[in-house]
Amino acid sequence: MIKPLVALTALTLLAAPAAAQTTTSGDSAWVTPMLQRMVQPDNARRLEALKAMLKEKGIAFTVADFPGSPDSQGVPGHNVVVTIGDGPRDLVLGAHYDAVIQENGKAVDGVVDNGASVVALVQAIEALQGYGPRHRVVVVFFDQEELGLLGSKAWLAQVDRSRIDAAVIFDVDAYGDSVIYGGMKSDTRGVVRGVVQGVCTRKALDCIRFDNFPPSDDQSFAVAGIPVVSIGQQPAVDAHQLWLLMHKGRDSGLAQGVMPRVFTLIHTPDDNMGAVEAPAVNRAFEMAFELIRELDEAYALPSR
Ligand SMILES: [Zn+2]
Fold first, then answer.
1. What is the number of domains present in the chain?
2. CA of 145 to the centre of ligand 1 (A)
């Protein structure tokens, strides 16, 4: 996620929020050992940790390299791609694996932003392989999101975008029990929004819709006109503070200096395992699976 000060300047229309009760049914014991492995001193070793996790689970993947750019000081990038099924049209599930590099040259632990989403999607891959979607599901672990969404922009320039029915991006899904979602300006038919709200209702989740959402790789899909949603999680109070900031900016009514904790946590040494709530990561896994399964139905394809 890119910090909100940039997003605050991009204020647009107001919208009414919605709320319900919260549950998570699955076991989350898998989270900590897997997530711990994403804590690495640099992004090259985060990439290796991700590849090792996929290999151990017998998940085939490819690495889609892209050239360096001025924004990356010429450093090339590496998106990791897993394909499930061979349907005629695509659904994309994405999360960036790179972390912010501090002034001392060392990566932050980057479990909130965005290691938790990465391991949630690794779990979702196994579940989706078991489910067998009609669409081809392309799971992409993006590089260089923190440098300006470079990985998602590069990937979309490399693939046949006309095949993609919709995309779901996970970013900052490590704690809290309210689901925040947004970035849906390209979802003009409202199919993605309907699916998100259906999953939220069915799983009795507290889901809050944003018209203005902190930017992440969803923006690259929206610019390409592909229906997309970005999914995050926050504690309920933080989620509503964030909503007010993103939709009302300086007129949020929040007391001076009140800022959702996430903005003082991501991109800092505080983004570490101590901030992680395993049930939230497990919820992200379940949501990733459910959203793709529902989109697979919603964008109906002829049965085989
Ligand atoms: Zn992020």
1. 1
2. 7
